[in-house]
Amino acid sequence: MLNYKIISKIIGSLLWLEATLMFYCLLVAVFNHGHDVMPFIWSILIIVGAGGLFRLFGRKASTSLGRREAYFVVTVTWVLYSAFGTLPFIFDNPSMTFTDAFFETMSGFTTTGASIIDYPEKLPHGILLWRSLTQWIGGLGIVFFTIAVLPSMVGGSVKIFAAESTGPLKSKLQPRLSTSAKWIWTVYLILTVLCAFCYWLCGMSVFDAVNYSMTSTATGGFSTTSGSIAAFKSPAEDYVCIIFCFLSGVNFTLLYMSAAKLKIRQMFRNSEFRFYTLVILFFTALIMLELIARNHYTVEHAFRSSAFQVVSFITTTGLFNDDAAKWPHVTWVILAVCMFLGGCSGSTSGGIKSIRGVMILKVVRNEFKQILHPNAVLPMKIDGFNVPTAKRVTLLAFIGLYLCLALICAFIMIAAGIDNTNAITITLSSLGNVGPTLGLEIGPTMSWSILPEWIKWICSFLMLVGRLELFTVLVLFTPAFWKEN
């Protein structure tokens, strides 16, 4: 049986942390004299009370955490954070349904960026900051953030990290996980501050610069206006967004090793980084040529728009500076491939991750060699590390499960009357935590508010499954997980 007391103790601590985050939004609401002051006060009181009840139930819990408890607590934490995160939205706008509020919050914490709010500029400052903050905290992981700030909260942090971290190959900076978490969050914070400063230099207000920096470095995509970055009509801001979204799509451990320890060459020797960079350059060139030839863009405009959209889609950010729905349909295919691929493992981006793309290419290469040399033993090495057979099997299982989920959910949406293009890209966008979609009913610049409520629940589930990389969530639905032994 699961150790519910230790699970309850952890959830209680995490809920108090969520209340603390909301308190900062309350201060912004008070400073701006917004009508969201009371919604935040009530939300904080409810969350603190709920956290207290969880802590009370787990007051005599042991400090040991098993593998099953780790998977359970990570999944439940993301669901509860999203459920309690709906409170400010519902209290501020009683006409908003719980489905819409949950969709918005889950989209925030998973850094998907899909929104059901048509005009975010009408929201008060506190609510806007809460939307951005959900993405910033969810960028590297709710529990991972907690390990950094509360390293002694509970034993078994390594198991929790394994359940929440992204990518098939894990790397550590320091022997202690809490120390590694602090260094990675330091890199993340520095990137966010630099991004906000650059946005401010380019003409954004302080409030907009802070919000867009959080959603850019979290590769989330929530905006303070319905026009996203395009509303500012500033090429300088476009380039700032491209640079920081690109950096946020790089493995943060690699960023730390390359920048903090002045080992820049190490970054370019990394096979995943090279793959990620070459894919962006190649796809940007293809779309750029299409825009020049068919949409008659100038060279600079074509380069900026194509680079922005490719980086936004491959890092699963979802911000936009142009309406890709008006582009040639061949560019939609390229952007859909970007949705599927995603950025690097250990970054804030979604998708299957570029490292899996590298592994697939090496598996295919080895298969061709095996045909010519049936008795050869062919190792698969990535950056000098020999990938064991178990990891290769997991890779194939992951890709197979990812495609099956995408096909099943796309089929359900098509059966519900959603057009084919939208159904496929909505599924890929939700599962890859991308945000925008491609199609006529819901374009890349539109909200998802017109979707039926039950489709929004499917999308919310896909967001959670995609953010926790399938197995962490889906293992809870297997009979073996609940067996005593």
Automatic annotation (TrEMBL):
The keyword Repressor does not apply. GO terms for molecular function: metal ion binding; potassium:chloride symporter activity. It is a multi-pass membrane protein. InterPro entries: Cat_transpt (IPR003445), TrkH (IPR004772). K(+) binds at residues 111-112, 220, 316-317, 433-434. One of its GO terms (cellular component) is plasma membrane. The keyword Flavoprotein does not apply. It comes from the Bacteria. It is found in: Cell inner membrane. Its main location: membrane. Belongs to the TrkH potassium transport family. This is Potassium transporter. It comes from Prevotella lacticifex.
